[in-house]
Amino acid sequence: MTSRFSTLQNRDVRALKPAEAAPVAHHAVVIPTNRKALPPKPETTPGKSANKVLDARVRIHRLLLEEINLVALERLPKDEMRRQVQEFVSEKTRQERMAINTVELEALVDDIVDEMVGLGPLEPLLKDPDINDILINGHQNCFVEKRGKLQQVHIPFKDEAHLLRIVNKIVAAVGRRVDESQPMVDARMLDGSRFNAAIRPVAVDGPLVSIRKFSKNKLGLHKLVEFGAITQNMAEVLAAAVHARKTTIISGGTGTGKTTMLNALSAFIPEDERLITIEDAAELQLQQPHVARMETRPANIEGHGELKQRDLVKNALRMRPDRVILGECRGEEAFDMLQAMNTGHEGSMATIHANTPRDAISRLEQMLGMTGMPMTVQSIRSQIASALDLIVQLTRLSDGKRKVTSVAEVTGMEGDVIQMQEIFRFVRTGMEADGKILGHYEATGIRPRFLEDLRNMGIEFPGKYFEPGRPQE
User: Fold this and answer.
1) Which of 13, 144, 236, 283 shows its CA 20 to 30 Å from the CA of 219?
2) How far apart are CA 123 and CA 76, in angstroms?
3) Is residue 191 a contact partner of residue 3, using CB atoms and an 8 Å limit?
4) How many structural domains comprise the chain?
5) Is residue 9's pLDDT more than 60?
6) Residue 311 forms part of a structural domain
7) Of 56, 87, 117, which one is at a domain's C-terminal end?
């Protein structure tokens, strides 16, 4: 690219290291789905030491409730509260003649403090920076994704009621509720983590909990290049397209890294633009100075007050946005989003659940049909074709790696068919014995039409970027 683009907005775009990379809700990691790659199944029942600490915790906690003013104790600073709890526990273990060593005593104190002011047995998992997801299937069955691998762990919930208390503590802290009349809940925890739970009667074997932890690690496009999720050349083209206000849809299945990619690409939006983000649970962390974040709201107990994404998109268009960023497009809000893209809000971005760029187009057609408005198929497709410029397809391969597998440009209509041309793609060439997918990126030989717009902005790319069959750097 020319030096002009590489210094735009004081960002070293050629190195893909923007001055402020967007934080993300999770980072691109490897989750082996191949059985040989999975670690041995751990012991699902706690050992003697864990049982001993659990029994002691129950007894000490009962004594604490009987003898200590918990209200006054919980008002103390955490360090002072921990000191007093430690003194109490030390005294009671001596009086009760509990045979526990120093390490077990410290674990017991931590458990009690976590139970009082935190989320009990979940606290160690929430504090572990290597854990991305916590998945609980009843009080005796828990899995975590740690360093990219899904593994079973033991969490010392006493019983189902104990787990349910933790669930209620989480939802109460964010003004939500979960009970038999409303047995499912989706919420954003105070630290930004995404929380979902289902209880009986929906959850047959006890509470089901899913927590996707919010990561404070800043992950830029250059990191995705390092991970092999995209090549340097492809990343530079996408960064330039975003900067030049090319409307972009990021498509992929669940867990393919759509939010990660959206965060990374958004770093190349100029800082003098007003951005409005709309999400079910706020995960996007754009770093521009002028960002307005909006979040949907469920109905209250009486069934009133619900705010859907479509309501927020309509309202956002009255707030003078330069671009609207939709965390996930999945319903009738697609109509208003496409209207925005067609009426002066070029460069807006969204994610969508689909397996190919063509599937993404079909999904948008279905969403526009959900509005109930009298529109012909040709009218629907015409709106989509005129609104979109790029579709970035993400895929999680069978070995767990997340990759951009296709970059396609929407070029318009031909008859009743939306025309697209693929610019880059990932070509699979085989599989190693351990299940690792082999392959490389290549250009298709088609030069995107938006290169002319980039050239008018002083941004040019060498011809080798688009040479057919050339492995991408």
Assistant:
1) 144
2) 19
3) no
4) 3
5) no
6) yes
7) 117
Token readout for 25 is 């809700």
- In the 8-state DSSP scheme, what is residue 215? P
Listing DSSP states for 107-159 in one string gives HHHHHHHHHHHS-GGGHHHHH-TTEEEEEEESTT-EEEEETTEEEEE-----S
Distances (CA, A) of 436 to 36, 77, 144: 11, 50, 22
Q: Are residues 95 and 126 part of one domain?
A: no
pLDDT over 90 percentage in the chain? 53
Q: Rounded to 5 degrees, what are φ and ψ at 326? A: -100, 120
Q: Work out the pLDDT band at 89, boundaries 50, 70, 90.
A: confident
**What confidence tens digit (pLDDT) does each residue in 321-362 have?**
999 999 999 999 999 999 999 989 999 999 999 999 999 999
Question: What pLDDT sits at residue 470?
Answer: 63
Read off the pTM. Answer: 0.76
Task: In whole angstroms, give the CA distance from residue 30 to residue 242.
Answer: 27
Q: Quick one: 217 exposed, middle or buried, by C-beta within 10 A (0-12, 13-18, 19+)?
A: exposed
Residues 240 and 151 in one domain: no
Which DSSP letter does residue 182 get? B
Question: Which tokens go with 454?
Answer: 């980039």
Got the DSSP string for 252-295? E-TTS-HHHHHHHHHTTS-TTS-EEEEESS------SSSEEEEE
Scored b (16 or more CB within 10 A) or e, 370-403 reads ebeeeeeeeebbbbbbebbbbbbbbbbbebbbbb
Q: Are residues 243 and 369 in the same domain?
A: yes
> Nearest Cα to 392, choosing from 407, 377, 403?
407
CA atoms within a 13 Å half-sphere pointing along the CA-CB vector of 212: 16
What number of other Cβ atoms are within 10 A of residue 100's Cβ? 17
Q: Is the pLDDT of residue 167 over 60?
A: yes
Spatial separation of the C-alpha atoms in residues 13 and 15, rounded to whole Å: 5
Tokens standing for residue 59: 């007894």
Q: Are residues 258 and 389 in the same domain?
A: yes
Domain boundary among 117, 141, 165: 117
Extract the tokens encoding 2. 């020319």
Q: Tell me which residue of 425, 415, 426 sits closest to 446, measured CA to CA.
A: 425
> Is pLDDT larger for residue 61 or for residue 331?
331
- How far, in Å, CA of 330 to CA of 163, rounded? 32
Kindly report the average pLDDT of the chain as a whole number.
84
